[in-house]
Queue: 3 jobs
Job 1
Amino acid sequence: MPETDSKSPKDAASHPAFSKGLEGVVASETRLSLVDGENSRLIYRGIPIQELAGTSTFEETTFLLWNGRLPLAAELTEFKSKLAAQRKFDPAVLKILKDMPLNSRPMGVLRTMVSVLGLFDKEADRIDVDNMKRKALHLTAVFPTIVAAFYRLRQKKKPVDPDPKLSHAANFLYMIAGKKPEPEMEKALDAYLILLADHGLNASTFSARVTASTQSDMYSAITSAVGTLKGDLHGSANQRAMEMILEIGEPEKAEAYVRDLLAQKKKVMGFGHRIYKKEDPRATAFRAIAQRLLDRTGEKKWMDISNRIEKVMLEEKKIPCNVDFFSASVLYVLGFPVDFFTTVFAASRVAGWTAHVIEQLTDNRLIRPAANYIGEADRHYLPIEKRQS
């Protein structure tokens, strides 16, 4: 079937301006979040993320992203109830999850399970706004259930049923550990989920919008997003940062370790950002969250190592840390295995992904960028008997 946004041969040969990696190219308009790299600001629907992380909840922030405003008290109560009610999945879906190889990468499992969920939704192909919001609610609610269940299965333990009386963050930790978390742990994860919920037109969000622009279904769009986030250049920096911190092991070894990496011209994970010219505003928020949590849990060693790494990077490279750096220690102390870090990222970003899918479909146009052809021209077919090696 021909594409609806096809161009004429003359247009195709005109070589429009090329930007590798679409750097600086504006491909969409959004009301969801502003990523201000020059001024190190991130706002959701006009509200600075520092305010949301400090005073809001993930449920309230998700309502804000999906509806464009903060909820009234009764609306928030109803929204929390609806979200909690969607946490359990069909026993048949759980059976499929149990059949997954236990040595699978957690992000690969999550990607596959999103696709599976679509097969069990009889109205998966309906893309009207009401149906898309229903699917957004279910996916956001069930991501932690999938992640926690696979973690428990890998530990050869029975998955923990979600508790509808707990907050989204507290329930996530409860399903991982099998016990209700301390308030400080709940608050730390809640802040993480808020701070990572949306971030403009990043790679995974863009892939979700591209899929949605074809008028495919929500599950396909979110499967695209999870698959994109799985890549090392996008979603696994917090995992790599924690692996580095664990390898260092003790604060007094940090400085020499980092200087050795720099001498070898190797990347120090958790530093620098494609957009932010100064410090990532989410990293600023996480520094305080990590300090409180690590002090509370007696795991200050990880904060000491992180502080020493940051000091060397600022002295030697003048490169500030990004959101992945301090959040790595937070997720580790909360009890998430290092190779599950990106799935926790996905459990936050699904709120933003689904909001972008809905926004895309409310004013849709097929996303179809051009490509400049730089290969040979004016060649002709040569019969096989006349070809030479």
Note: The beta strands are 33-36, 41-44, 47-48.
Job 2
Amino acid sequence: MACWGSVESGEVQSLVGSDCDFVVWTEEALGWARSATGLARVHVKLDSGMGRLGTRDRSLALSLAEQTEADAGTELVGVTTHFATAESEDQTFLEGQNSVFGQFSESVKRFAPNVLAHAANSAATLTRADTHHDMVRCGVSIYGLDPFQLDPSTWGLQPAMRLTSRIASLELAQAGDTVGYGRKFKAERPTWIATVPFGYADGISRQLGGKAECLVGGLRVPIVGNVSMDNIALDLGPETEAAVGDQVVLLGRDGEQQVLAEEWAAAAGTINYEIATGIGGRTEFVHRSHK
């Protein structure tokens, strides 16, 4: 178990007591690790260009690694960095980061040969074997999402999340009738409108109104009008076999059709990770394991 984010002084003892690895990049944080009761499992983080967590000072990073290795109360488990552009077509910056990190990890291995060097995220894991070092840290791909925002099946990935709701109301709109706040959708012909109780309070972006699709009875149908706090509206067309209470698949597969988080992300101008992690609110999560 590992915590790759920032930690506060009051959290360190709990991490140590749980045998949870964590990262340090300051003298202060290493001091917290040294003061904890028990063996602190530490990874030293070098900021090789992400500009987020870690130290840009390679001398400091090396010193922290040396101190961690020398102290009986701390175990130097790994050295790490994070790539900023692994998903980009231009790999020049990634190659520079990987070179800097490689040099740093080689320096550490001279006095700590068993240390784990790790840098690769999902995109680098899938496409750049030279970045794998001793270990990779897949994120979005673990959930069957494509780090390149295209089609996860390209990499043999299967989306882990299936998001469903139900038809709460089914009404026949006549030509000229409008749907939702701001009357953004106007029916051009008689069409059945299904109201589905899932809105932006549950994590569906308001940007998806009129831009994305869901599945009803295995068929793709568009989200129409503005997304409301508690509801979305679907245009089922002039004829439908759907009924109140029928399942609606917002994300995932229904028969031969599948709606991907990548589709919603493209429609909303964001990434699949934000779509997936944004789902919440009143959503009930059911976890299933597949052997």
Note: The chain has two domains: 2-138, 163-278.
Job 3
Amino acid sequence: MLDPLILRNDLHATVAALETRGYALDAGAYEALEARRKALQMEVEELQSKRNSNAKSIGQAKAKGEDIQPLLDAVAELGDQLKTAEASFRQVRDEQADWLLDMPNLAASDVPAGADESENVELRKWGVVPTFEFEPRDHVELGELHRMMDSEAAAKLAGARFTLLKSSFARLHRALAQFMLDVHTQEHGYTEVYVPYLVKGETMQGTGQLPKFSDDAFATTDDPPRYLVPTAEVPVTNLAADQIFAADDLPLKYVAQTPCFRREAGSAGQDTRGMIRQHQFEKVELVHIVRAEDSKAAHEELISNAEIILQKLNLAYRTIVLCKGDMGFSACKTYDIEVWLPGQGTYREISSCSNCSDFQARRMKARVRNPESGKNELVHTLNGSGLAVGRTLIAVLENYQQQDGSVRIPEVLQPYMGGQELITL
């Protein structure tokens, strides 16, 4: 959530900044609402002052033996007026809150301008794109060849956009997740957490999934509903909700492996073949909770931690910074990592690492006490995939395939596969 003060102090500059994020704010309507808020706040404060003054006069008149009934009547009337004014004030504040919940985060000053993904900026490439003496198969063809990836069986169980893995493919999927968790906990200093896969509405709101993206969420029929997590970012980041941290408590670095559930509303026809875009997939998620002054450095650390997984797997990738028009709702700056997929002959997203500044913290009321001023300040939150497990499986299968269809197992994964070096037909 944006700081309401930036809209009060410089509304038109904020409107312009929001436009670069694809959000059109009606400045006139918001200005009128803010004027009403200020007027009602002044009215409430004035009525409170008058009521307090009359209440004090009652005591003085009573001590003098004067008739206090007129004063009692005046206080009662002021009380009624105050209740009405306070109700109107709360209604306006609620309207403003609804508006703020709908606004995306503002982009950081060093985020490139641009309207969509075509204007994202490549920062670097790593690794050598493999060449083959044969036409490389994509992961769907490899799955069919090995009979270890079955979309038809999954569709029979759950419908479209699910995949069933078997045998060595299922074990390789599990091995990848375990490998990532071990690297992040043992080498990068993350604390592993196991979190609920169902969360409350306020938890989803805390990280920005609600109310904006309710159509993309799977909700239960509970009253109120609970939601299947679209990413571990939601429960893990909310561990900071309603907390006031000591400065020495930060930074906090968490890692969690969870399934992720998404309706993929509005993506009909996109990547429906295979495992690229699914209703259910696994992800190893990284979350940082830091002080504001450590935010930029934490973002660089986060993207580096995700990149190292691909380096250890010897998978070629490129890192890009998203332009303003392509960033996610809660982010002020986002790096994406795209891994090379020989079956498609292109780079595809495998990780998105975002700095959300104080946007989520304001929603969650996550704060840290400044040891110098003694005041509570909002923390900064960051999150990123370290990595998406299914897409990493796809990358390993396609990059390590051989002409006969067999798949070499990367050396770093062999201990997780019981020493197995090759997935044969």
Note: DSSP finds twelve helices and 17 strands in the chain.
